[in-house]
Amino acid sequence: MIVFFRALSGTMDVGSRKLLLLILLLNITGVQAQHSVTLSSQSLCAVTGSTVKIPCTFTPGHSSVTQREWYRVQSSEGEPRDLSKDPQYSGRVSVRTVTSDCELTVRNVRASDSGVYNFRFKTRSNDWISAPSGVHLTVTDLKVTVSDSESYKVLRCNTTCPYNPTYVWYRNGLFKVHQDRGKLYVNSGEPGSYSCAVRGHEELRSPAVCLFDEKSCWSVTYSTQNICSLIGSSVDIHSYYTFPNRYKVTEVFWFIKEQTGVEPVDVREDEEYQGRVQYTQISQNNCRLRITNLRERDAQTYRFRFYTDDPTGEYTGDPGVSLSVTDLKVTVSDWSEQYMNLICITTCTLSNNPTYIWYKNGQRVSECKSASCSVAAVGGAVSYSCAVEGHDSLLSPPVYSPKNTSAVVLSSGDTVEGDSVTLSCSSDANPPVLTYSWFKQRAAADTLLTTGQNYSISNISSQHSGLYYCTAHNQLGQHNSTPTLLDVLYSPKNTRAVVLSSGDTVEGGSVTLSCSSDANPPVLTYSWFKQRAAPDTLLTTGQNYSISNISSQHSGLYYCTAHNRLGQHNSTPTLLDVKVEVWKLYALWGAAALVPALLLSLLTAVLCIKRKRGAERDTDIQSVPKPGDDTHTALNLKNTSPDYDTLQNVQDSASDTYTTLNPTAMSSDYDTLRGVAPRLSEEKYSRTAE
Predict the structure, then answer these.
(1) What pLDDT does 81 receive?
(2) What are phi and psi of 480, to 5 degrees?
């Protein structure tokens, strides 16, 4: 940019150069102003063993941050070292990473932690950016000094901090007084052990000094009588013990059970606490018990005991510290269609009035920081959980709207018409489901059937078959189950037989009869019958019955029977009407008229022939008639006799019997007529002539 300015300045007048320089300076200033680090304190003083928080904010501008870190400013040249990677600070430092917040927390500070600390960050377009100057941290020990003044003693609480804090004084471990100045005047009427602390860090006390009477200097006190901590977290229990200055402590331990005449067991040797207990000597008179990964059964009363080099010098602090262990639980206190109020509850009051953290579907809800959180009601799936600041990973079990909702048919086997059946709904919800609702899927809008976890149907029918689903509701929302099929089984019904034809059924054609039926399970077999006078007989099996080259004989009433494993049902008979073609009908009618006529003619001819034969036989057998007797004109009706009467006088001769027949000499049946006929004719004509 400077080269660019020089190149342009050679062609500009003085006024233009000044204007260009001003623009460049403004641009540079603007770029720098977009990236900054702000440390609200320039110096801090902390007591050994305390926790220090150094407030910090930064502005990355429109650039994305690629790296950020806290470091300790060194007097010598060299690249600063990230505190989170420094072994001296391992497990003791943490940095907030919420948006532009970069607050540093250092726990259990030591005298060696004194120094200057700063924060820096890097973007893609810039090098490291840090605050102009860091924060100077001083870590100090507390010490009580004693001076005599006539009948009383003057106690001073000394620190190396540059400011004058408010001090807290203790006698035999118990609170005595607050003092703005680090002086305390004690007369001989108040013997005992005295120690001091800085207000706000009361658990970090100075070593005690014994005044006036050694017997009054033996004591054990605790930072608190009751502690409430979260399951899974860690807890620190402090004991403050005093003794005459001329003795030395040889042993300290914590225990939870004591029996008369039996030495109590150190919690470090208890199997229940293996790997979870740690003692730390914070100061000469302060022993801290730390229990990690708290369990519900860790809720006990803990007491401290110490031994000195005096054979009788032991002391136990009673009554001890009562530890309560709790988990977090979210309850819904109020709800409506617009909002709901959530409360993060515990079984005991958490120590130190913590800040609460709320999560919605796993994402932090920034506007809620207390034990109560009011949120808008939503219709979809949602879950909420809470935690305590500093224990972000120890979340409460979530509360959530119903999920995994399921509808099932409670039946040990098939559901058959006439049975009773129950459908049951289940769902995973916290808080538990308030109401269940039942619906049946329909082409139109689904309508509510009933409410309740179970839906029972008695005397069930095929109309109840279909898809059913349930809806589970709680304060946070609702969820529908996947539809489940209610399959009602029944024997065939509505069985129907029809003739599959587009017109009349005519002789010589083909026709198919079809059977249909409503059944569940489906029809296994169809059977076909034709109604007859005699018992009906099975024609065939199958849904269709086909007839080819049909004739009028096939006309009649047909019916089918549908079968499944639950029963059978007959159709109403259907008529098969076979029509005859017109020309065939006429021919049939003609044949019907002709046959009787032919039969009548044939019968007449037969009768005539018979009669004629009878007459001829009479002529052959009788004697030759007299002239005039053979003609009809000579007939005398009065003298006539019935046919064959003339045969009575004819006698068989031996020549006429069959016993004398010679087959070789036999002639045909009518050969005799040849000789007779001419004679008859001649006689006839002769008589006529006469």
Answers:
(1) 82
(2) -95, 145
Q: Please choose, from the candidates 479, 497, 586, the residue with its C-alpha nearest in 3D space to the C-alpha of residue 543.
A: 497
Cis peptide before 431 (omega within 30 of 0): yes
- List, in order, residues 6 or more apart from 327 with CB less than 8 Å away: 230, 231, 346, 347, 396, 397
Same domain membership, residue 134 and residue 60? yes
* Terminal-to-terminal C-alpha distance of the chain: 179
The C-alpha atoms of residue 73 and residue 440 are separated, in whole angstroms, by 73
What's residue 446's pLDDT? 87
Shared domain for 186 and 231, answered yes or no, is: no
Contact 562, 526 (CB under 8 A): yes
Mean pLDDT by 10 residues, the chain (690 residues): 40 51 39 70 83 86 79 76 85 81 87 88 80 86 83 84 80 78 82 84 81 83 89 91 86 84 85 91 85 93 91 84 93 79 90 86 84 78 87 89 94 88 95 95 87 95 93 91 94 94 83 94 95 88 93 92 95 90 60 74 81 65 49 46 46 44 45 42 40
- Is the same domain home to 124 and 162? no
Neighbours of 145 (CB within 10 A): 12
Scanning the structure block, which residue is given the tokens 């076979």? 578
Instruction: State phi, psi for 90 to the nearest 5 degrees.
Output: -55, 125
**Comparing C-alpha atoms, which of 248, 249, 241, 247 is closest to residue 173?**
241
Token output for 377: 């009601």
Q: In whole angstroms, give the CA distance from residue 690 to residue 684.
A: 10
∠ CA(126), CA(128), CA(134), 5° rounding? 145
CA nearest neighbour of 676 among 617, 610, 634: 617
Domain of 59 in residue numbering reads as 37-139
Q: What is the pTM of this model?
A: 0.56
Nearest-angstrom CA–CA distance, 537 and 558: 11
Looking at the fold, whether 416 and 510 belong to one and the same domain comes out as no
- CB-based burial, 301-316: b 16+ in 10 Å, e otherwise: bbbbbbebeeeebebe
Q: What is the pLDDT of residue 583?
A: 55
Residue 632 lies inside a defined structural domain of this protein: no
197 and 119 both lie in a single domain: no
16, 69: one domain: no
Question: What CATH number should be reported for the domain holding residue 101?
Answer: 2.60.40.10
pLDDT at 47: 84
Q: Residue 495: helix, strand or coil by DSSP?
A: strand
Instruction: Tell me which DSSP letter residue 328 carries.
Output: -
Residue 612 lies in a domain: no
Residues 187 and 236 in one domain: no
pLDDT of residue 231: 93
Q: Same structural domain for residues 51 and 124?
A: yes
Q: Which residue has the tokens 């809806």?
A: 471
Residue by residue, DSSP assigns 239-286 as: EEEE--TT--EEEEEEES--BTTBPPPPGGG-GGGTTTEEEEEEETTE
**Collapsing DSSP states into helix, strand and coil, what is residue 368?**
coil
The helix/strand/coil state of 199 is coil
pLDDT at residue number 12? 52
Of 139, 162, 194, the one marking the end of a domain is 139
The DSSP letter of residue 371 is S
Give which of 123, 103, 95 is closest to 41, Cα–Cα: 103
How would you classify the pairing of strands 447-451 and 556-564?
unpaired
Residue entry with tokens 């204007």: 19
Question: Residue 153's CB: how many other CB atoms inside 10 A?
Answer: 19
